[in-house]
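Lay summary. Proteins are chains of building blocks that fold into shapes, and those shapes determine what they do. In this project we predict the shape from the chain. Here is one chain we studied, written as its sequence of building blocks.
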Amino acid sequence: MNCQERQRITSTAESMAELMSMDSSEVSNTRDEQEEEVMYQPLKVYLRVRPFSKAELENNENQDCLIIENQETVTLHAPKYSTAMKNSEKGIGQSAHQFTFTQVFGPETSQSEFFEGTMNDIVKTCINGVNGLVFTYGVTNAGKSFTVQGCSKDGGILPRSLDLIFNHVRGRQYPKMNIKPCFSNLTKRLNDTQVKQEESIKAALLASLKEDTENTSKSITSSSASGSTSSSCSSPSFVLNESDSEVYTKCPKTLASVWVSFFEIYNEYIYDLLDVVPASKNQKRKVLRICEDQGGNSYVKDLKWISIKSTDEACKILKVGNKNRSLACTRMNQQSSRSHSIFSIRLLSLSDESVPRVLGVSELSLCDLAGSERCHKAQTFGDRLKEAGNINNSLLILGKCIAALKQNQNPKLRPAYIPFRESKLTRLFQPFFCGKGKACMIVNINQCASTYDETLHVMKFSAVAKQVIQTFQHKIFDYFPKNILEGTIGLQCTLMTYLQSNFQRILVSPLKRK
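And here is the predicted shape, written in a compact code that computers can read:
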């Protein structure tokens, strides 16, 4: 047994022990036993082209390297001094490359237009119970963080997604904080003492923002505390009709509870961005671990989940996390992200009863990947060089996973090993590429001649990703029946009985599902 297998067994055992230690009234299993029809869909890959800055135009970066042919196709032309042009002159490779995407958004595209063209579908599916992942990919200084978060006057896809969710659950929000998400897709009930602890944690986070930060966040969104109005990032077109949502149409008396988390992967360590940062440099931040629940689903252990009632609150939580995020100045970017950050939104669907039942849990994760970079161009040294190495390595492993997924779709080729477990990032992405969610990729590029070779590499990676076929279900089948969670002793007995009587079916079912 190797080290990775031992760690996996240990983390699963810890999750089972933690689950058994909870009172039966605390934990709810939110998955139905009925398996729904498997859906097949190519991975959606969108391209967004950043406009030139004044400094770039002054430095003659505009050399017509990129031509937008139509809404789906772009052509790259290698500039004179690029590596690609030198290779083509030697007869190695080509000087022009053409790429197709799900949709291409030019430099003139507004934040609102980009959101409507990319995010409406995946947010709707999240509201209907399907987990969703959106991740940005590109070189440093390509506009990834702006696409995700936006600015004070023009919000990105994150605040707009929150607006869409809160507009939809308007008037149906669960007012209490006594039902909280845990593990990967479960919930637990909190007692009065635990609820007060959650309230104090949230109050401390919001109070940590200075007065000017709070005023800035108000310009991002004008949502009220009850979520009854949409923010400045919203428009009437973002509001879903009742007919658009299967969950709330089937269950008209449904309440919703929204929770968020925010963490970063820095140098292959996971840090909670909503945790208190040590005042002293001698104190180290708490490192979080990835564990697996009883279904083999990965989750970040001890990650803070904060209950929010509006987009305004979520934007404040986002600002708190951004203050703790690892940033640095490089030659290519004054505010370069030195870590991958993941902001997750969990939507709990509850029955409208005196003692609400959990009907479902869905999650939308928005990942702002750190940009790939060449160290000699970014002039990174010391800590910056180490950060760049870890960033590039995790992106390399992500590329290997995408390539292996594409290869495994061809029955004529030998199945390839998918190295999901070789990095923290791909381990967390794994469920979305293995039938337990829906993924979407946003490629950000600039048009600068000086970064043409890096941009070409990004485009080639996206071309492979676009050929990956996703499989996902509206409801993920759970091998563990509902009565497995009716008590600690009953849990152990039911688990043993269930495994003994269904051993063969558990081994065969995953193969049938493929």
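What the prediction tells us: The chain has one domain: 37-277+285-478.
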